[in-house]
């Protein structure tokens, strides 16, 4: 009997560690690859940005798996990109080994490139033929992240627009922590924050993504119930930009002498209603190899009296364009005047995207472009409606949407998707209640109470409330039923209208300063 007891104890001591080891291994042994478990009817909605797409300009991508391809090797996907005021929708075919696009409609080709470089990027390491588990130290290395080893670094819950997910975090450290959150039961990542590999300075985002919605529907879901923005019927006749063969290249200083702007545009003699491409570099006066970082700017078209006809930022549904490392490239449809279109490159100042810029580096460059009529006849645009304040500055009304997420009624850390925003005067902000409980948007604070500037009253589930902010200042607001929900709106000074008298004064002051230094030899020795 004693012999069997000893044997039982020995077996117990042997089995328990093995069982614990097995349990520990199983916790990360889920195999995964982008596209795993994808099936007909699945749909996804993402907010994404990618540095090669207009320096990480915000973009929403929605896609729905319509059916299998005829040979069964892939999926036909209805794909839609919401790019500011531009909406493009078409069919994209993706593979089953990797979910990269194999074919797509021409109007969505650029956007499928963004999808490939963000949503499906991890198929560089994991495919259906070579899935990966989360209990290995590394999935591989790639030059696009500076040769760093990419692999599982932690296990955590993360909350995004689509809900809360139990995720594995894939990442690497190169100056900063890069992270991609993956739920092994979801075919694509639920969140990502990946930075550009730079040698100096603060790295800008390489790409970000957040899963807003997901589900399964036998018919086209609501996230795709939009039509494409019309594309000109003359586009087939248009000369396409070609920077190598047909372009104009110039280097000039802003009217305020704040910086050097190097620009190139193509075609050199464009048609109205056809694409024109601008490549810009914003460079330091003292060393053109050094560029301004975090530069906010816009491209305007003005008439002969300097009245604004067009704003590229406004056309994209943004308050300004952004060049995080001093370079940017924009292709857009020319809406100019013949025989000459007057462009203005307006450097608005420096500062993080969405913030009020430091205007000490502000300045203008004016460019006259010989312009031909559109193929269908003249299309000179009417002047943009100007809303000029008493101080002579131009207000550019925009719209901003803020979501009250599902579950924000509870004190669980869930809050507005945009808690603190900075806007120009005239901006309308719309709050949407995506929770299942009522909320209010009440100006003031939970501690001091309402201040009477605006109040939505109860906004029921699925309803919206909008308020237009006309005066500069800082506005705090909170939710009366759930007072831990709070946010702020900062309304900054408006973008100056042309001509920019303050910048002209600055240019004179800077010019006199430079002249004074040059004529006083003693100052050269300092």
Secondary structure layout:
Layout: H1 2-26, E1 31-32, E2 42-50, E3 59-68, E4 74-83, E5 86-95, E6 101-104, H2 109-117, E7 132-133, E8 140-141, E9 149-160, E10 163-174, E11 176-182, E12 191-195, E13 205-216, E14 248-253, E15 260-266, E16 275-283, E17 295-302, E18 308-311, H3 312-315, E19 321-323, E20 327-333, E21 340-350, E22 363-370, E23 387-388, E24 393-395, E25 399-404, E26 420-423, E27 427-433, E28 442-445, E29 449-455, E30 464-469, E31 473-478, E32 486-491, E33 495-496, H4 501-519, H5 521-524
Parallel strand pairs: 25-27, 26-32
Antiparallel strand pairs: 1-7, 2-3, 2-13, 3-4, 4-5, 5-6, 8-9, 9-10, 10-11, 11-12, 12-13, 14-15, 15-16, 16-20, 17-18, 17-19, 17-21, 21-22, 23-24, 24-33, 27-30, 28-29, 28-31, 31-32
Characterise the protein shown here.
With 526 residues, the protein is mainly beta. It folds into three domains: 31-224, YmcC-like fold (Beta Barrel); 235-394, Macroglobulin (MG2) domain (Immunoglobulin-like, Sandwich); 399-493, Cupredoxins -  blue copper proteins (Immunoglobulin-like). Helix content is 12%, strand content 40%. The chain contains five helices and 33 strands. It has an eleven-stranded antiparallel sheet with strand order 6-5-4-3-2-13-12-11-10-9-8, covered by helices on one side. Strands 17, 18, 19, 21 and 22 form a five-stranded antiparallel sheet that branches. A hairpin with a 7-residue loop joins strand 8 and strand 9 (149-160).
């Amino acid at each position: 009997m004693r012999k069997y007891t000893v044997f039982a104890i020995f077996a117990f001591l042997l089995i328990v560690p093995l069982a614990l080891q097995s349990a520990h291994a199983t916790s990360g042994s889920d195999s995964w690859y982008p596209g795993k478990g994808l099936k007909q009817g699945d749909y996804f909605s993402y907010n994404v940005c990618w540095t090669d797409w207009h320096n990480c300009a915000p973009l929403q991508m929605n896609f729905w798996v319509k059916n299998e391809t005829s040979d069964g090797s892939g999926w036909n996907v209805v794909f839609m990109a919401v790019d500011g005021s531009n909406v493009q929708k078409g069919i994209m075919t993706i593979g089953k080994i990797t979910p990269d696009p194999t074919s797509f409609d021409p109007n969505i080709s650029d956007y499928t490139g963004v999808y490939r470089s963000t949503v499906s990027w991890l198929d560089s390491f994991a495919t259906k033929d070579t899935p990966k588990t989360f209990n290995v130290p590394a999935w591989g290395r790639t030059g696009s992240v500076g040769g760093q080893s990419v692999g599982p670094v932690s296990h955590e819950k993360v909350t995004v627009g689509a809900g809360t997910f139990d995720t594995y975090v894939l990442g690497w450290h190169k100056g900063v922590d890069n992270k991609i959150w993956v739920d092994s039961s979801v075919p694509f990542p639920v969140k990502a924050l990946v930075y550009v590999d730079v040698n100096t300075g603060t790295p800008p985002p390489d790409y970000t993504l957040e899963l807003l919605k997901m589900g399964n529907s036998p018919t086209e879901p609501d996230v795709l119930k939009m039509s494409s923005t019309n594309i000109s019927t003359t586009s087939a006749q248009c000369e396409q930009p070609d920077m190598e063969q047909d372009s104009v290249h110039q280097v000039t200083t802003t009217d305020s002498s704040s910086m050097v702007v190097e620009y190139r545009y193509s075609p050199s003699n464009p048609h109205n209603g056809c694409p024109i491409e601008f490549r810009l570099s914003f460079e330091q006066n003292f060393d053109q190899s050094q560029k301004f970082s975090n530069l906010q700017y816009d491209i305007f078209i003005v008439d002969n009296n300097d009245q604004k006809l067009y704003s590229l930022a406004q056309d994209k549904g943004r308050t300004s364009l952004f060049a995080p490392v001093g370079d940017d490239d924009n292709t857009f449809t020319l809406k100019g005047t013949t025989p000459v279109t007057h462009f203005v490159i307006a450097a608005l100042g420096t500062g993080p995207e969405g913030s009020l810029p430091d205007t000490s580096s502000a300045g203008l460059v004016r460019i006259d472009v010989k312009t031909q009529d559109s193929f269908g006849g003249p299309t000179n645009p009417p002047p943009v409606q100007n809303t000029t304040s008493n101080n002579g500055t131009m207000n550019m009304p925009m719209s901003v949407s803020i979501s009250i997420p599902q579950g924000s009624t509870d004190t669980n850390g869930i809050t507005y998707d945009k808690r603190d925003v900075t806007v120009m005067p005239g901006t309308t902000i719309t709050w949407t209640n995506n929770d299942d409980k009522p909320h209010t948007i009440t100006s003031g604070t939970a501690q001091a109470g309402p201040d009477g500037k605006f109040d939505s009253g109860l906004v029921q589930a699925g309803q919206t409330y909008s308020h237009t902010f006309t005066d500069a200042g800082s506005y705090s607001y909170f939710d009366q039923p759930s007072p831990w929900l709070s946010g702020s709106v900062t309304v900054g000074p408006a973008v100056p209208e042309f001509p920019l008298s303050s910048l002209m004064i600055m240019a004179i002051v800077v010019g006199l300063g430079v002249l004074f230094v040059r004529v006083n030899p003693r100052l050269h020795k300092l």
